[in-house]
Every structure is written in structure tokens, then in C-alpha cells.
Task: structure prediction
Amino acid sequence: MVKITWISLVASFVVYTVFINVLCHNKTPTPLTKEINQGWEIWQNKNCQACHQLYGLGGYMGPDLTNSTSKVDVAYIKAVIKSGTSRMPNFNLSNKEIEKVVAFLKWVDKSGHSAVDFKNVHWTGTYIID
Ligand code: HEC
Result:
């Protein structure tokens, strides 16, 4: 009896793992380019994460930026980074550096969602991206 239970648990685990990874995982990750990497470096050097979250992790003074490039106009994003706001410092980034940060934010945006919208949760526990 113990053996049957054990075997069926292992079999369920294997079937479920294959199901999730092969059948449900149809999204290929966007490859990292040099520009995205440089944007990431600026993000780290300027410590944007101190005030902003990515995937819900980071500081809470500013908004979560995981899906910023699809939620707000990219021109607005560039303008905020260029000039700062009353609460966000101006980091004196050049237009080229801003392009790199935006490329990084676009890459992050494609990689996932920060807040889970419950209507998109599949019964398998995976998240459906529409
Ligand atoms: C000292 C805290 C702080 C730091 C550091 C900071 N920000 Fe911000 N940021 C904010 C706040 C606060 C806002 C919201 C606008 C406001 O209320 O002034 C904001 C807004 C933004 C927005 C607009 C997002 C939206 O949805 O409106 C972007 C894009 C942004 N920041 C990018 C960056 C980047 C890139 C860096 C690093 C180079 C950075 N921020 C560093 C505080 C910060």
C-alpha cells in the first residue's frame, strides 16, 4: 500500500511537472541585448530600486515599474527620468542613457506581471498572459 501511494505521488509529480513546463510554458524569454544590460547597470548604479519596485520588490516611495512601459506612455517615462519630479531626483542622465533604461524597463515588462490579476490565474496555478 505504501509502495502504491509512493509511486502514484512520484508519477503525479512527474506528470504535473511535464504539464506545467512543456505544455503551459509557451513563452520564450526575450534575449538580453547590450543596450538592455547597460540600462540595467544604470538602474543599479543610480539605485532606482530604493524607491521603485520590480516584481513587487524594492522601495515604496515611487510606483512599481514592472509593467510601466505598457501602462504609461513611454514619452512620459522618458520625461520623468529626464527631469525628475518634486519627489524623484533628476539623475542628469543623457538621452542615450535614458533610452537604455527604457530598453531595460521594456524588457522587464515582457518578463512578467507585478500584480497578479486573479481573473488571469489558471486552475493549474499558472498565470495566463493575454
Ligand atoms: C528618491 C526616490 C526615487 C528614486 C531614487 C527614483 N525614483 Fe522614479 N519616481 C519616484 C516617485 C516618488 C515617482 C512618482 C512621481 C512623483 O510622485 O513625483 C517616480 C516616478 C517614476 C516614473 C514614472 C512612473 C509612473 O508610472 O508614473 C519612472 C519611469 C521612474 N520614476 C523611473 C525611475 C528611474 C529609472 C530611476 C533611477 C534612475 C528612478 N525612478 C529613481 C521616486 C524615485
